[in-house]
Amino acid sequence: MRVLLMLVMFSATLSAQDQNYWNQQYGTRSRLLGGAVVGGCDDTSAGFYNPARLAWIDNPSLSVSGTLYQMDRFFIEDGAGRDRDLAATNWRVVPSLVSGIHLLDFAPGHAFAHTIMARNYSSNNVSARRQANINVIDESRSPGNEDYTAQLNADLSLQEYWAGLSWAWKITDWLSVGATSFGALRIEKSSVRTRARAVWFNGTVFEAASVISDQFFSYTDLRALAKGGIAIEFGGFKAGLTITTEAVHLWGQGTASRDVEINNVDTNLNGVGDTVVFNDRQENRRTEIRSPWSFAMGLEYRVEGTGTRLCVSTEYFLPVGNYVAMRADNRGFFQGLGGLAGGSKDFLQVRDSRNGVMNVAFGVSQEFGEWLIGHWTGYWGFNTDFSADVNKRAGGLSLGGTDFDLYHGATGVSVRTDKSEFAIGVHVSVGSNRVAQNINFDDPTEPGLLFGASKSTRGVYWSVGLAAGYTYFF
Length: 474
What we know:
Elements: H1 2-9, H2 28-32, H3 46-49, E1 61-76, E2 86-102, E3 110-134, E4 146-170, E5 175-201, E6 206-234, E7 237-244, E8 248-265, E9 274-286, E10 294-303, E11 308-317, E12 320-326, H4 343-348, E13 350-354, E14 357-371, E15 374-385, E16 397-398, E17 406-416, E18 420-436, E19 440-445, E20 451-452, E21 456-473
């Protein structure tokens, strides 16, 4: 029974960038201000940040923006044991926002907009290996050292796209309301493979003990949500409030599989090696990805006669309780002991949960005036990006959680003419947290399934990117 319990508990988890809600900002100017635009957004990104602000925009326009080039580094020091770091360096183009504002003659005081955005766009691929001649197997079966090898390979990716339609109404000279209805498409894949083996000569023949674990899930999920907002403006002072609803599930389907083999491993230290195999795969499983309610507010103040704008925003995301993100049938294993309590259901179900978090953003813009090709403005922004990750439950599959609390900074300029605006800048992200080792190749033992005990270590994430955007005014 001990080996069965350990088998079900045996699981390796890694991180995908999915539980940092402010990992990206949308629209170049809003990104350069750190997203501190809930109170005073005055471009097409208002459809996301505060749809009520659309009513204050006079010119219909179309915008496109993104990160032209970004390098990010994911690093867990000693993530698989001493001097075996888990690291991934990614170079990629990151899409951000395509949006537009439409003003219709038959609806004065009203504004309409469309928004297409990459809400999340991340991936990581890491690996580690150890090969050594060390003592792993109990002395009663193998006196001395064994030839030991262990390795980890993980490939994780997440893409989430939102598309929305917005409406805003300027009720008075100082008050407006607005709302955006979003559809969210999420595509995630996680594949983690671990191997460990000890080989020795028992005096007659070579003998081996091994542990193999493959866990995989992928899915596509569609859900709907909405954001409502209000905005006020008095001279140089602007303020806004928004509420984003939790998601309503529309459709989702995915696949989950696990293959765990324990061969000739004496987990009870009774002198007898245990061999147990569990393997199953379920396709076309129903998914239901949840996202939280959130509440945001923002303020902006224009300093009279200086061309300087100061802005601040904050948003609180409510917790998401423990839930099943991908359901599995309760059936016997394709291979293995079908009588194990819970059966294949507990073995394959994908779970998720999230803490509540609050983020803040600060931004400054400064008008420099007319020069050469247009009117120049500079931007500086900073925002926090705390992780909503909850320590994952051992033994099952779970959505990747980012353990890093991140901090983002950005700066850049925009040039505006009568018919267009171009903005460009750089953004930098850093974060470091204490994290648990994904798996440990140090001091492996038979009771530990040929691995060592997981320890606490340090995780680091940083990225730098070049962002650009273009807006055309009709």
